[in-house]
Amino acid sequence: MLNQLCLCAQIKSLNELRYTPAGLPVLTMWLTHESWQMELQQRFLAKMEIQAKALGDLAAHWPYQPGSMVEITGFLSQKGIYHSRPVLHIQQIREYKG
Amino acid sequence: MLNQLCLCAQIKSLNELRYTPAGLPVLTMWLTHESWQMELQQRFLAKMEIQAKALGDLAAHWPYQPGSMVEITGFLSQKGIYHSRPVLHIQQIREYKG
Lengths: 98, 98
Known about the structure:
2 copies of one chain form a homodimer. By secondary structure, chain A is mostly beta strands. Chain A has a single domain, classed as CATH 2.40.50.140. Chain A is 5% helix and 69% strand. Chain A contains 1 helix and 6 strands. Chain A has one helix spanning 56-60; strands at residues 3-14, 18-19, 25-39, 42-55, 69-80, 83-95. A 5-stranded mixed barrel of chain A has the order 1-3-4-6-5. In chain A, strand 2 (18-19) and strand 3 form a beta hairpin. The longest helix of chain A is centred in the middle third of the chain and has 5 residues, at 56-60. Chain A is globular. Chains A, B: One of its GO terms (molecular function) is single-stranded DNA binding.
């Protein structure tokens, strides 16, 4: 079932790289987004902060610094059993060059 | 700048139709989503509840009842100045037939 977010965003902050008990590298971060979207033929300023998560090699060899603009494709899932806020699980990422 | 979510979800609850001061119909709702996604070649159970919003004719002539499965395309924006949680602004919706 469909669950795909394509988002151009700025990396606001990166947390320390951590490892799961199974040894998987995990990097979490906050992204900020601001864009003009169309809603009922009017321009609407969409603004958002969202947490994102990279796993594995992408997390271990993370090439983007805070302030970088990136284009991400991924899926949303709640942060945890007791945290229903959605987190973006990064599947593809590249630098945004405008 | 890119901000597009494609989501298949179930309508959990619908709020009462309301109108903005300018007379625009607004319908807000909660959606639930559950799907298997691929993450590092493993299956991951993505689960989420997210608020969504329809405006205008779509809100005024809303055809879906709680329990309906729908496929939505839209963009994310924070709920308000003091509520940073993302809300899905519905641009396209259709019944999900599996």
